[in-house]
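Training component of the fellowship. As part of building independent skills, the fellow (R.M.) carried out the full modelling exercise for a liganded target. The chosen ligand was histidyl-adenosine monophosphate. The inputs are recorded below so that the supervisory panel can assess the work.
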Amino acid sequence: MTNLIQPIRGMNDILPDAIPRWQHLEAVTREVLEAYGYREVRFPVLEKTELFARSLGEVTDIVEKEMYTFVDRNGDSLTLRPEGTAGCVRAGLSNGLLHNQVQRLWYAGPMFRHERPQKGRYRQFHQIGAEAYGLAGPDIDAELIVMSARLWKRLGIAPVTLQINSLGTPETRAGYRQKLVDYLTLHQDKLDEDSKRRLQSNPLRVLDSRDANVQALVRDAPSLADYLDDESRAHFGALRGLLDASGVTYAVNPRLVRGLDYYSRTVFEWSTNRLGAQDAVCSGGRYDGLVAQLGGRPTPAIGFAMGLERLVSLMEEAGVPAPESTPHVYLVRAGTAAEAAGFLLAEKLRDALPRLRLVMDCGGGSFGNQLKRADRSGARIALILGENETKAQRVGFKPLRNSAEQVELPWEEVPSRLAPWLN
Ligand code: HAM
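Fellow's submitted model of the complex:
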């Protein structure tokens, strides 16, 4: 066992015991997204590196230091997608889905970032994202937020809290940026190394620094809210009105800037205090400039993505029960005739009860050993088929999780006896 190949740091195997919770999260999310008219789109995990450099911003953490980039056999620079928005826009443009149309799209899958792994932060992680195109007004911003609030309710994972902010347009942001740089330059000695670097490259990111001294400094910094253009201010006001009317509680956080360059106007983040430092479970915002930046006609756009690992942890934390995945029935067979007949019986039961989870013992052995395996499988019922039962087209029906007696039934009666045990 010395030369076992180790998994890659920050990339996890998701094992069968954990899967029911993942599937539940995925199924409920899909149901909610589709209830609001979102349709699934699937696009590649690999894209040209240029797509991400142009969308996310050259001086963002992701593009500067977190991408899995390599040169393929044709000499092209490719990157494993660090997020889904850029690929979604690219797929929309490549297939003519965005021009002069309203589209509500969703996607799910793995994303890759070479970050420092810790609880809730991985190098391969999974997102479900939703993106809406062709809608410029604040109603779609509000609807996306209301939809995510419904999702938390459906999943039973409150409390998650919502922060919102408006980043204005690129022009208002450029004006504000200069004011911020002037202020931060005056107080450079109080900045940590990371913020000093960001002051040069991407000063707005200093606003969401986690360093306590920087946070104190930023509290007195000029606020982006004071520099918003009239249209952005009206958009944000209308969004707040719609959220208030929908009963969604939120906090306005003027320091919420997000780590990607494509945002404009509305940004938002749902977070929790149950998971430690990696507290954002769903984040997004408006990116009205991105479609044109990637070569399309100007198209308003907004979306969010949620981190599935974090939501699964939150479901565990909140004690949301995982759906049952153990078999309902374990079928044991002994004797040559019973072995063949067991196949037949199993298939008849699967025909009659499509939701039945039936495991047939394979590999043989004594009844005693097979029944031990039946018990270990977690099944509720053992069906027992020996030579005598086979001849009579009957089967032993043995409840494994209560003290009810074993009974013998004709095959045709088994489906109706099993029906109450299925969930
Ligand atoms: P993001 O904030 O980078 O935004 O990621 C969205 C969510 O993915 C986060 O809130 C978090 O739950 C999860 N996440 C991010 N990085 C990791 C990681 N290393 N390990 C585990 N979970 C992680 C985006 O990706 C944008 N594309 C969202 C968006 C869609 N904006 C508009 N449309």
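The panel noted the following from the submitted structure. The chain is about 40% helix and 20% strand. The two ends are 42 Å apart (CA to CA).
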